[in-house]
Amino acid sequence: MLRLYTFACEAIMEGNTITGAIIESKSGREAIKAKIVIDATGDGDIAAKAGVPYFMGRESDGKMQPASIMFKVAGVDVERGVFPGGFEETFQIPAGDIQELGREHISKPAGHVLLYKTTLPGVVTCNMTNCIGIDGTNTDDLTEATIVCREQMDEIIEFLRGFVPGFENCYLISSASLIGVRETRHFKGEATITEQDILEARIFDDWVVTKASFNFDVHNLTGDGLDETGAQKEFKQKKGYTIPYGAFVPLKIDNLYLAGRNISGTHMAHSNYRVMPICANMGQAVGIAAAMCAACETTPRQLDVKNVQKRLMELGVNP
To answer: Could you tell me the sign of the dihedral formed by the alpha carbons of 298, 299, 305, 309, in that order?
Structure first.
C-alpha cells in the first residue's frame, strides 16, 4: 500500500518490539501495523520515538552541518560561465578570485560559490544558501532556516549578475520545496561505521552496501564553505568501502531497520555516506533484508546476513 501526503508521527510498541506506526494525514490519525518497520526518514523520527539510543551531530559538541535550499537560475550564457563544483575549486574572473569575491560580497553565513550545469539550455543549479546553528528535528529551527535561505537567494543572484561572466542576465526559476537538512540524529546500532573504516576501504564480513565512494563532505558548522575537518578534492581513498549489516540494525528495539543518513555511524563517516547514491544502495540492501524477515517471520537481529549477501550478489552487487 502506497500512502502519499502522510506523516509518520509515533511508533506502535509492544515492549521493545515495534509493530507499526501512527500516521497523520488529511484523512486523520490512523495506525499501520507491520511485520518489519524501516525508518528512512533521514532524521530517524520513528526510531527516536521507539526508543533507539542516538546522539546529535558532532560527538564533541552536538553541532550539526548547516541547512540549505538549492535553486536554479535561467538566462545563463553557459559558454562564458564558470562552474566551481566544490568548495576547494575556484576560478579567476575579471573581478578576482570567485570564492574570495563570494565571501566578500555575500552576507554570512553564506558566501561560498557552487554552480552546476544542468541538461536544460541556460539553466544552472546553485548550491549557495547556508543556515548554521539549525536543529533539523525542531520545527521552529526549520522555519527559521527556510526564511534565512530564501532571503539569501536575492543577494546571491545579485552577486552572480554583478561578478560572474555569463550570469549577467540570470534570473530565478525554481527552488527546492523543502529545506535541505544534512545532519541530525546518529543512531546506535549493532555495528558503527567510522572514519577509519572508510579510509581503510574496509570490507566487512557482514557487508550489505558495497563500493560506496565519496569524500568527507563536512560543510562548515559555524560559517560558509568547507569545515576544516572535511576533505573533498584532496580525499585520498578512491577504492570505495562497504557498510556492515549491523549499522542498519538498531540497539534495543526489534523489528526495526535504519536506512539513509540515520544509520549507525560517526559524524565524520556520516559526512561521506549521507549522499544520495550511497543511500539508494542502503535502501536496496535493507529492502531485501526486510522482505526476508517478513517472509521467514524472523527479526533483523536474527536474520542470517549471508542470505542477504547471496541475493545481492545475484543482483550483481559484490564487495
So the answer is: positive
